[in-house]
Amino acid sequence: MTRRPPTRAGGWRIACLSTLLALSHHGHAETLRLSDLWLAQQALPEPAAYSYFLLERQQRAEQRRARRLHEELTTLIDWHDLSGRTDLARGLEAWQATIDELQSAPARTPARADLAALLAAPRHDPMLASLAAIGHCDVPDWVELWHFGGVTRHQWAPELSLRDVLNKQADSQWARADEAWLITPQGAPRRIGVAAWNASDAPLVPGSRIALALAEPVQEAAWVNRALPGFLATRLPGDTCHTIAMPETAGQVNSGGPAT
Q1: Per-residue model confidence (pLDDT) at position 248
Q2: What span, in angstroms and rounded, lies between the C-alpha atoms of 32 and 21?
Q3: 161: which strand partners?
Q4: In sequence order, what are the residues at sequence separation of 6 or more whose Cβ sits closer than 8 angstroms to the Cβ of residue 46?
Q5: Is the C-alpha dihedral spanning 244, 248, 252, 257 positive or negative?
Q6: Cα–Cα distance measured from residue 210 to residue 144, given in angstroms and rounded to the nearest whole number
Q7: At what angle do helices 59-82 and 219-233 cross, to 10 degrees?
Q8: Is the pLDDT of residue 12 over 70?
């Protein structure tokens, strides 16, 4: 959802767009940054929305990581089936299917992309020429738990915590875990203890994902523990997302529709 700015702000953004066009006309489009594109929009995303961008150089690396996650999980599923742990094998099949589904959707670079953050930290304001995608997502009403029985979404509510979400799940689907990864919509993954001996807790914001760390009797489990949190951090943190058209020239800067 977007908010139309007052007349004065609208005139200011039109002036910014004119500057953008002038820069492109004089051959300086390569100097434009993401903040310039946000300033050129007729209406900015609501402050609560999750803005995102994807660096061009990260596209293929993320595709390779998703393919390898699929392959390593196939090996783990077979290993657990042969060991008689069929419930865990079925849970990992759900992980695998969800990864395949997420991979088919647009991705993001795990970094703040909203205008306020970019203006506050110009060194982290990427050049438009380096980007493959730009957009923003409506704040979702869920948090997502990757547990030993599969992947489950829970309704978000104020003051919801990691421990609350774990307790909503059957003990058999998480109690054997020692640690979990917390992936927030705009931050880096964080490892948190969840066993009795190292139990911790953390508040959850909408769109958070929690992935339980697998026991590591084989090297494939260790690799999944390292790679899955990073992959989830590159997924869009919402179901209703809106792309911003990537301009080949600055004259193409405009608002886009829902991401597909």
Answers
A1: 65
A2: 10
A3: 203
A4: 1, 2, 3
A5: negative
A6: 6
A7: 140
A8: no
- State how far the alpha carbon of 31 is from the alpha carbons of 130, 178, 204, 226, 258, in Å: 11, 47, 38, 36, 28
Structure tokens at 134: 């730009």
Task: Report the DSSP beta bridge partners of residue 152.
Answer: 145
**Range list of H helices, the chain:** 7-25, 34-40, 59-82, 86-103, 115-120, 162-168, 219-233
- Tell me the helices (H) and strands (E) count for the chain, helix number first: 7, 9
Do 228 and 210 form a contact (C-beta atoms < 8 A)? Answer: no
3-class state of residue 96 by DSSP:
helix
Pair of tokens at residue 159: 């003051």
Could you give the CA distance from residue 121 to residue 139 in angstroms, rounded to a whole number?
23
What SS3 state is found at 112? coil
Tell me the C-alpha distance between 133 and 248, whole Å: 12
pLDDT digits (tens, 9 = 90+) for 194-241: 999 998 999 999 999 999 999 988 999 999 999 999 999 999 989 999
For the entire predicted model, the pTM comes to 0.83
* Band (106; pLDDT cuts 50, 70, 90): confident
Of 138, 186, 145, 139, residue with least CA distance to 162: 145
Q: Which residue has the tokens 């061009």?
A: 56
CA distances from 151 to 112, 147, 173, 177 (A): 26, 6, 10, 15
